[in-house]
Amino acid sequence: MGYGNLSTSRDCTWDEIRRSTNADVSYGALAARKLNADYQLNAISGLGMVRNYNGGSPDVTYRTFYDRALLNTPGDVWQNPGTWRPQLVVVNLGTNDFSTAVNPGEPWTPDSLAAAYRTAYGEFLRKLRARYGAGTTFVAVGHGQFADHVQQVVKARADAGDSKVRYWYLDGSGLDFSGCHWHHSAHDDRLIADRLTSFVAGQPMRW
Predict the structure, then answer these.
(1) pLDDT digits (tens, 9 = 90+) for 92-150
(2) Which has the least CB within 10 A, 84, 161, 178, 180?
(3) Domains in the chain and their CATH numbers?
(4) Burial (0-12, 13-18, 19+ Cβ within 10 Å), 18
(5) pTM of this prediction exceeds 0.85
């Protein structure tokens, strides 16, 4: 989170991306502080739920790394000590899956990609539920091309009896996308944090 959000230009070199990226002022961190909540950020640039940006690195996805404590160590698994029970988990995955057209040679059609995304998303939420227990609320973020798919996943979880999965639409109005490579700027992160905070504050949770 926070990819190039402090940049003054959308055109950035890799060094400029590193120097202008500040996760501490990304919308997740800002929302947590507004809610007076502890937080943990798990984010890897360019990776999606089942397909990465422009079809890159097809042998891995975001889910490949989620279980790891050491991201660069294949097979490493983070062991929950039993004391890490977040009250809220916000999932925002889908931009990289759908923001670029499927390239020749990729194993996808638009329909098969959408179906695989929904299946993987549902499995991911089930994994989170098993890991964190019945008391955790999940917020599934939808926007752009994948908003309807996220809504379908949330409905499927509700139909399966999971009453603590919420859908939140990320309202893009007023965002300038002036961070590196058209990512959110610090201005955008503040707007999104305000909107997410309002949504979370309306949920039946106590910190």
Answers:
(1) 999 999 999 999 999 999 999 999 999 999 999 999 999 999 999 999 999 999 999 99
(2) 161
(3) 1-40+174-207 (no CATH), 55-85+93-169 (3.40.50.1110)
(4) exposed
(5) yes
Question: In this structure, are residues 131 and 81 in contact, taking their beta carbons and an 8 Å threshold?
Answer: no
Q: Supply φ then ψ for residue 106, to 5 degrees.
A: -75, 150
Q: Are 95 and 146 in contact (CB under 8 A)?
A: yes
Two structure tokens written together for 64: 């490949």
For residue 3, the SS3 value is: coil
Strands laid side by side in the 137-142 sheet: 88-91, 137-142, 165-169
Identity at 170, one-letter amino acid code: L
Q: Which conformational region is residue 144 in: left (phi greater than 0), alpha (psi within -120 to 50 degrees), or beta?
A: left
Q: Are 148 and 178 in contact (CB under 8 A)?
A: no
Angle, vertex CA 91, rays to CA 148 and CA 109, nearest 5: 45
